[in-house]
Structures are given as C-alpha cells and as structure tokens.
Amino acid sequence: MWKEEELPCFLPYGAIPGNTVAVDANAYDRIRVYWGRLTHVDTIVPSEIEVSSSQDIAAVNARAVYSDGSTALKKVDWDISQVDFSKPGIYNVEGTLRGNPFHFPLTHGTGDPVIVPWKGKYYYLSTNDTSGDIGLYVREADCPEDLFAPDVERYLILDVDEEKHFGRLNFTSWVVSRIYSLLWVEKSGAPSVT
To answer: Fewest CB atoms within 10 Å of the CB: 49, 100, 159, 176?
Structure first.
C-alpha cells in the first residue's frame, strides 16, 4: 500500500496502475496501523504495591503497549536483591520483561513473511526465496513460537506452473495480497471485494 505521490518510484515509466482502490486518508492511516510493523511503544506497571514475599512481587505483571493500540500482559523478572522482607519499608524494584525473542532470519530461504492468527491457530505464510520468490508456503502451529520449530511441516500451496503463468513474481505477490486482504476482511467484518 502506498500513497499516490509515491507511485512513480514503484512503477516503470509510462506504467498505468491497475488493481488499485482509492481510500480516504483516515482509512489509509487505519490500514497502515493494522498491517504495518508492530512495535512495542510503552510498558505499564503499578507505581506502588504492597507485598510481603518474593512470590507477591513475582506475581506482578506488566502491560506492554503496542503501536496499533493493542496491549498484552507480560511476565517480569524482578530484581529483588535489595529488598529485605524482614524489614518494613519502601523499596525500589526494577525488572526485565520476559519475551519471545525471534531472531532474524525467522527461517532460511523464505521471503515476504507474515504471521496470521486464525480460528485458534497461527499461520506463517511466505514465498520461496531460493526459487525467485515463486511458490507460496504455509506453516501451522498452536502458538507463534512453534511456527519455527524444526519439526513443523511447511506446506506448498502454490508452486511454479508456467502453463498457468504461476511463475511470474507479480502473480505470487497478487496471491499473497489477496490472502492478506481476505483475512483482513474476515477479521474486520468489512464487505468483501472480489
């Protein structure tokens, strides 16, 4: 997705954009937030709590806030080395959020990756970089971390087929964009455009 003034840098000279839909600025901004890169923008923790044991502190979670406005509760590894539970008082405690570090690259030989939650499962869709981005693959797992486990099977759902012109990069890109748009329509409840 791009703004109209950005089109010349993507299209060859004289090309006429096709398969495009004009949207207003508000819809454009909402779509970019929804489909854009998700980043962690804030962490919310209680400013004060009353505890009597290390277990009480360990039970305190943080709320991570993301760039699309969503939030998630996260476990925290609290540093309680300066807390003396035998002496009442006020102690400052710092902590580190626990997370699922995903290291780049997520997989080898794939491109155009996206992870989609759908009907209680997670799906990793990608193209095949070893064949010029031709081919569309999917993996399925119960949680995002498991998508990259060594034993997770990768299913080919679109392969090279020159007779059907499935060997051109623009076709693979079109298929990926249609899958993403269909998933967005289903999740958002927006009317489908075919």
So the answer is: 100
Which residue type does 54 have?
Answer: S
Per-residue pLDDT of the chain (194 residues; tens, 9 = 90+): 556 555 545 566 777 767 777 788 888 888 888 777 888 899 999 999 999 999 999 999 999 999 888 898 999 999 999 999 999 999 999 999 987 767 767 777 777 788 888 899 999 988 877 766 567 889 999 988 889 888 889 888 877 666 655 555 455 555 666 666 665 555 555 444 44
Query: Considering the entire predicted model, what is its pTM?
Result: 0.53
End-to-end CA distance of the chain: give it in Å, rounded. Answer: 18
d(CA 70, CA 64): 8
CA distance 98 to 122: 21
44 beta partners? 63
Distance (Å, whole) CA 104 – CA 148: 12
- How many residues are there in the chain? 194
* The pair of three-digit structure tokens given for residue 49, joined into one six-digit string: 């709590």
Strands, E assignment, the chain:
40-44, 62-66, 71-74, 76-79, 94-97, 110-118, 121-128, 136-141, 155-158
Cβ-contact 137, 155 below 8 angstroms: yes
At residue 78, what are phi and psi to the nearest 5 degrees?
A: -85, 140
Residue 183: its H or E element: helix 169-188
